[in-house]
Amino acid sequence: MNFPTPAEQLTYFRKQQNQIVDTIQQLVEIESPSDVKAAVDRLGTVLASRFGELGAKVRVHRADKVGNHLEIRFKPSRASYSKPVLLLGHTDTVYPIGTISKMPFRVAKGRVFGPGVLDMKGGIALMLHAIEALLQWSGRKLPRPVTVFLVSDEEVGSQSSRAITEKLARESAAVLVLEPAAGLNGAVKTSRKGVGEYDLRVSGKAAHSGLDFEKGQSAVLELAHQILEISKLVDVGRGITLNVGKISGGTRVNVVPAEARASIDVRVTSKQDAVEVERKLRQLRPIDPNCKIALSGGMNRPPMERTAGVAALYAKAIEIAQGLGLGLEEAAVGGGSDGNFTAALGIPTLDGLGAVGEGAHAEHESILISELPRRAALLAGLIAQL
Ligand SMILES: [Zn+2]
Predict the structure, then answer these.
(1) Can you name the residues that pair with 111 across neighbouring β-strands?
(2) Does residue 1 register a pLDDT over 60?
(3) Does the pLDDT value for residue 105 go beyond 80?
(4) Residue 92 Cα, ligand 1 centroid: separation in angstroms?
(5) Distance between Cα 314 and ligand 1 center (Å)
(6) How many A from CA of 233 to the centre of ligand 1?
(7) Quick count: other Cβ atoms within 10 Å of Cβ 161?
(8) Using CA of residue 117, residue 121, residue 123, residue 128, what is the dihedral sign?
């Protein structure tokens, strides 16, 4: 078969639509919460054999606490000196085992519903079908080397997989992340905020609230002051947000509390802002000199900034989309992904190339079936033409 025209590619994927949905069903019905290693590994085994059937070499990176990570490599047709393109995805979901019985896989109103269907089992299905098509079109070998890396711990911060993601990114020409598109118009993500998590612990002095009130130093009161100080660091215009999302403290209502604690989620759009916010958090001092405060934590995902490399990759995606008769928009989002790590290394990264839908991490999580052929064609085009 000669390499098809863009219009023929789209027609091919429209005919494949039901098979893509079948693949998504297979992946969604194997539940894979980040914290149940055996479950994530079950899905990993199925994916290793699906990619293996396409001729890939699969290397399993064993992990102790989380599921194993899968490094999947496709060799190109002839000795090619071009660097591979890296496709990134994650096999884990945020849904506990048993969710599938409450929100089963189902097809309705032109959509597919189910836990993890959008974030991001739909994206993994797109990888499988785009690669399968390219293999057919170019005669059983891909036009360029392709590495697929599926991590098992993205939803819990990617600590176990991060170093491997970074190593594979460094040897790649570009990184395509199959996380969900932004919004129902299918925008790709060209920048993401950096994400940090900090913990502020306050210690005061316990005392009986009736007999010795004045001898106590309230850690809860001190924490309240600190939270107000932290809120002053928010600058929504610059995209800097700090959310004190969890607080705890005290033991009983009639005891002046000796301990209190707050967890802070930090989001920033640039590396400089990350440094500046951290510096300001470390400068916090007790308002009540008899209390002590201690800050721990840090940034766990650097921001994905819209560098020249990212912009060039996006321009290429627009060109391919236009060839397919599609429009393509870009979006900046507040959530982080493994694309944050690869972009921070200076490797051109385009994110949000996965399924189009809504309700990630929620009961109405769903994807638009009619968009699947377009996304598959866009991905195949990017792999072939980068
Ligand atoms: Zn995701």
Answers:
(1) 108, 368
(2) no
(3) yes
(4) 8
(5) 20
(6) 28
(7) 25
(8) negative
Query: Which of 80, 94, 193, 85 has its CA nearest to residue 149?
Result: 85
Is pTM beyond 0.85 here? Answer: yes
Structural contact between residues 356 and 295, judged by C-beta atoms closer than 8 angstroms: no
Find the distance separating the first CA and the last CA of the chain, reported in whole Å: 22
**Hunting for tokens 């809860």 — which residue is that?**
220
Ligand 1 mean position, distance from CA 313 (Å): 21
34 token code pair: 């980040």
- Report how far ligand 1's centroid is from the alpha carbon of 155 (Å): 7
156 alpha carbon – ligand 1 mean position (Å): 10
Give 315-335 pLDDT, tens digit per residue. 999 999 999 999 999 999 998
- Measured in Å, residue 349 CA sits from the centre of ligand 1 at 15
**Sorting pLDDT into bands at 50, 70 and 90, what band is 140?**
confident
| Contact (Cβ atoms closer than 8 angstroms) between residue 223 and residue 234 | no
| Residue-wise pLDDT tens digits, 144-165 | 999 999 999 999 999 999 999 9
Stretch (H or E) spanning 176: strand 174-177
Token pair of 113 as six digits: 């519903």
CB-based contacts of 291-295 (< 8 A; 24+ apart in sequence): 291/202, 291/203, 291/204, 291/217, 291/218, 291/219, 291/222, 292/202, 292/203, 292/204, 293/200, 293/201, 293/202, 293/203, 293/222, 293/226, 294/200, 294/201, 294/203, 295/198, 295/199, 295/200, 295/201
Residues in the 5 Å CB sphere of ion ligand 1: 119-120, 179
User: 275 pLDDT exceeds 60?
Assistant: yes
Q: Tell me the β-bridge partners of 356.
A: none
Give me ligand 1 centre to Cα 114, in Å: 14
